[in-house]
Amino acid sequence: MLVDFYADWCGPCQMLEPVVETIAEDTEAAVAKVDVDANQQLAAEYGVRGVPTMMLFADGEPVERLVGMQDESKLRTLVSSHTGA
């Protein structure tokens, strides 16, 4: 599962949104979006201090964390390395 911690006021988050949507459509990974303003406790639980933060979970455990704007190829490589897709 790829989790996108974002905020509505975050410019890089808005630029990353179409990339995240494409990955959700084109890969086996489930994608979840978490608004850090509406879910402050969850963001704190995972140590999210900046947005966008992308976390990849495998078997229910966090295995990768990327902070800041990411390009699509890097995210695809990350997801495929943990899904076998």
Automatic annotation (TrEMBL):
Location of the Thioredoxin domain: 1-84
NCBIfam families the UniProt entry points to: thioredoxin
The protein's name in its UniProt record: Thioredoxin
Site, as annotated: Deprotonates C-terminal active site Cys: D4
Any one Gene Ontology cellular component term annotated for this protein: cytoplasm
Record's keyword annotation contains Translocase: no
A matching Pfam family: Thioredoxin
Disulfide bonds: C10-C13
Matches recorded under InterPro entries: Thioredoxin, Thioredoxin-like_sf, Thioredoxin_CS, Thioredoxin_domain
Active-site annotation: C10, C13
Assigned keywords, A-Z: Disulfide bond, Electron transport, Redox-active center, Transport
